[in-house]
Specification:
Radius of gyration: 22 Å
Structural class: alpha/beta
Shape: globular
Order of helices and strands: HHHHEHEHEHEHEHEEHHHEHEHEHHHH
Number of strands: 10
Largest sheet: 6 strands, mixed
Strand order of the largest sheet: 7-6-5-8-9-10
Helix content: 40-55%
Strand content: 5-15%
Number of helices: 18
Length: 422
């Protein structure tokens, strides 16, 4: 099917339907004025009741400025809307979450932060999407400090969480450990966040080597001073990784155990000779729509486990595995934050789910159509929110799992009912 024709047919991907029945003329006075004034007064007395008396408990804003959309670059907020609508559909279908696409027309990061902060009373969480680097790091940090609901940047935490889930099982298959030598190819939002998350998980940053367009990041690079002023997040990676003092790409790959590439569409961005120089490697080539190296080429060069970002190859590593369950978990626990410990808990739950089904070189993470995986991820995140002291709702993990299961199943049931009407 042609995507434009499909979109024209439905005129967008979303609509809003009421859940309170309207059966008579008298119902209007309950749903709206004057009856709604009583609900208002309840929230005036206690603002937290907005999570019980409105739809806020299950809503997320998907906010973008359209500056880095998919592989298309800065397309602007209007052109980003189809992507945000698609994201909202995935939120509902996979996580049972009501998400609102909100592209905004702003130029500077502080205006972005002010606008999103002002949205806090309407939503239970914020999903930042397709915001260019390094602006995205600054915006995420400031918003996480400023608002009292979870703020998440899917291109950072979502991708990093999916990478970690897949890596946990790839390491089990190959017998590799936390002392693995890791090549991180690309220094954009996803890989900078992945370095931080892998370090939090226990990997040794000194055995990580990050490569950007200019070559290997190391403490003696000539552009380090300008990096410190223009992209302090990348600068921090440059000075805290590469304890092996590698300066060339060839030496970075030599005897490395793991490659995590999230750079530019391939093929042939990653050379087969680099894979041959690695040590029975795990290769994640995650660029879309074409991975940096095709899986068969990586296997021919000696890779033991290969993952890409595509669903038509085995082992799709995609943030869609993560964000629906994470937000299901933070909304169910009514968490005030989402941090790296919660992402790690979600990644471990995904990896464990795959292991229970039986992992192999062609199955290291669940597929997006394995609905039960989202219950497990959501409950692990909610449980961690309780442990971290962020949760307003405090239940046992099994209770959170049943809650997530019920809400996702109900959501899919309603979607099927609407779709059956055409």
């Amino acid at each position: 099917m042609d995507p434009v024709e499909v979109t024209l047919l439905y005129q967008g991907k979303l609509q809003i339907l009421p859940k309170v029945p309207v059966k008579s003329y008298e119902d209007f006075s309950v749903i709206y004025t004057p009856g709604v004034a009583q609900v208002v007064q309840e929230i005036v007395k206690d603002k937290e009741k907005s999570f019980q008396l409105t739809s806020r408990w299950n809503t997320v804003a998907i906010v973008t400025d359209g500056t880095r959309v998919l592989g298309l670059g800065n397309v602007g907020p209007e052109a980003s809307l189809p992507v945000m609508e698609g994201k909202a559909l995935l939120f509902k279908y996979l996580g049972g979450v009501d998400a609102f696409p909100l592209p905004i027309s702003v130029k500077d990061p502080d205006s972005f932060i002010n606008i999103v902060s002002a949205l806090e009373p309407s939503f239970g969480g914020i999903n930042l999407e397709d915001v260019e680097s390094p602006k995205c790091f600054y915006i995420l940090e400031r918003l996480q400090e400023r608002v009292n609901i979870p703020v998440w940047h899917d291109d950072q935490q979502g991708t990093a969480g999916a990478i970690l889930a897949a890596l946990i099982n790839a390491m089990k298959l190959t017998g590799k450990g936390l002392d693995s030598k890791i090549v991180v190819f690309g220094a954009g939002a996803a890989n900078i966040a992945s370095v931080r998350l892998l370090r939090s998980y226990g990997f040794d940053p000194k055995r990580m080597i990050v490569i950007d367009r200019e070559g290997v990041l190391h403490a003696e690079r000539r552009d380090l001073d300008s990096m410190m002023f223009n992209n302090r997040w990348k600068y921090e990676v440059a000075v805290t990784t590469n304890g092996l003092n590698v300066t060339t790409v060839d030496d970075a790959f030599k005897d490395a155990d793991i490659l995590i590439a999230a750079s530019m569409p391939g093929p042939n961005v990653i050379q087969k000779r680099w894979i041959r120089s690695m040590k029975e490697p795990v290769v994640f080539a995650l660029a879309n729509p074409i991975p940096e190296i095709y899986p068969q080429d990586a296997i021919d060069a000696g890779a033991k486990v290969v993952a890409t970002g595509r669903s038509d190859f085995p082992n799709q590593v995609n943030n869609s595995l993560i964000f629906p369950g994470v937000f299901r978990g933070v909304l169910d626990s009514r968490s005030t934050k989402v941090d790296d410990e919660m992402v790690i808990a979600g990644a471990e739950a995904l990896a464990e789910f795959a292991r229970r089904k039986g992992i192999s070189s062609n199955y290291i993470v669940p597929r997006m159509d394995e609905q039960e995986a989202y219950y497990e991820l959501a409950s692990a995140v909610a449980e961690k929110a309780v442990e971290r002291g962020y949760a307003r709702v405090k239940l046992a993990r099994e209770d959170f799992r049943l809650m997530a299961k019920g809400r996702i199943e109900e959501s899919r049931k309603r979607i099927r009912a609407v779709q059956s009407e055409g």
